[in-house]
Amino acid sequence: MNTEIQIKPEEINGPFNLLETVLSGQTSGPRWEAIKEGFWNAIRMPEQYVKYEVYQVKPVDRPSLSVILKGSKPISFNTKEVIHTHLLHILGLKDPLNEFYSKFKDDKISVAFNCFPGLRVVRASNNFESLICSICSQNTTVSKWNKMIQLIKKFYGEQIILPDGTLFHTFPNPERLANTSVNALMACQVGYRANYIVKAAQMVAEGEVALNSLSQKRYEDAREILLTIPGVGPKVADCFLLYGLGFMEAAPVDVWVKRIVQTWYFKGCNVSRENVRKFIQQKFENWSGYASLYLFHYARKMNVKAYM
DNA sequence: AGCCAGGCATCAG
DNA sequence: CTGATGCATGGC
């Protein structure tokens, strides 16, 4: 029961690079699985799980996508519409990327624009999963926190067999992780983060932190609440605020962002992470999330180590 | 062997 | 308030 969705150039506001975007290590969720020339994921619809394969069929400058939907039952028109809208949302395809590029075309950051045109902020399809991804991402590498999440899904998620026979594991709900032991979680290679994960899951499960209501609050207020979760500090909070909740003024500052900002804007002088964050937010305002993504991606890809 | 990775909690000053 | 240290883990 396959069907196809086209996402046409007119629906995408500016350039888009699927490959660069999916592989850029954002904590909205674990990396999508690669297939020939594209990526796949799955979504739970009321009547069935649907697998979707996303392919970029036209180039970055005037992009269009082809999405193959696979269900075990016929896929309704309504389901196609829901998934279509969902993809526009999570891939940030409505963000007016050219406005960002032109507004800062004379700034240092334009170097990164030219390296990765069409790189976009990916929004989470599952808040809780994004929070755990953000917590796991601390003091490790992108590939390693991705492995942690895959193991959590494998050991604690629900196993689904997709229509084409592919094995798929959902991300466990907060209650499931709240009721596991820290020791058992260590099997997922999460190390000392196991304490944080269980505690965060408990706080969400018990309603102490209501993830969905956070997106209705102001950025500063939501951030303050997130910082009460053990294992959630300034960087993890901003990752979740940006990729999990879609606060575009959030600016996650990790070692890469700190280095490149010091190099480009402070003559290599040492600047605290807090001051790097304030600098980005004053300069880029509602484009802060995008700015930190481009700075992060550039510094990491170019392996910027020296402060020059 | 030692340093580092999309840091944070804790403690010293 | 800022700065140093321990923390699991694995790649280099």
Q: How would you describe this structure to a colleague?
A:
With 308 residues, the chain is an alpha+beta fold. The protein folds into 3 domains: 2-115, DNA-3-methyladenine glycosylase AlkA, N-terminal domain (TATA-Binding Protein); 127-244, Endonuclease III, domain 1; 255-301, Orthogonal Bundle (Endonuclease Iii, domain 2), CATH 1.10.1670.10. Helices cover 45% and strands 13% of the residues. It is built from 15 helices and 7 strands. The protein has helices at 18-22, 77-90, 97-103, 110-115, 127-136, 142-156, 174-178, 182-185, 193-205, 211-214, 219-226, 234-244, 255-265, 273-284, 288-301; strands spanning 2-7, 33-35, 38-44, 49-58, 64-70, 159-161, 167-169. The strands form 2 sheets. A 5-stranded antiparallel sheet has the order 1-5-4-3-2. Strands 6-7 form a two-stranded antiparallel ribbon. Helix 5 packs antiparallel against helix 12, helix 11 (219-226) crosses helix 12 and helix 13 packs across helix 15. The longest helix has 15 residues, at 142-156. The protein is globular. 39% of the residues are buried. The protein binds a DNA duplex (13 and 12 nucleotides) through helix 6, helix 9, helix 12 and helix 13.
CATH architecture of the largest domain: Orthogonal Bundle
CATH fold node name of the largest domain: Endonuclease III, domain 1
CATH class identity of the largest domain:
Mainly Alpha
Name the CATH superfamily assignment of the largest domain: Hypothetical protein, domain 2
Fraction of helical residues: 40-55%
Low-confidence regions: none
Order of helices and strands: EHEEEEHHHHHEEHHHHHHHHH
The tally of structural domains comes to 3
Cα distance spanning the termini: 57 Å
Overall structural class, as computed from helix and strand content, comes to: alpha+beta
Shape descriptor reads globular
Total number of strands? 7
Give, in spatial order, the strands making up the sheet with the most strands.
1-5-4-3-2
Radius of gyration: 19 Å
Largest sheet properties: 5 strands, antiparallel
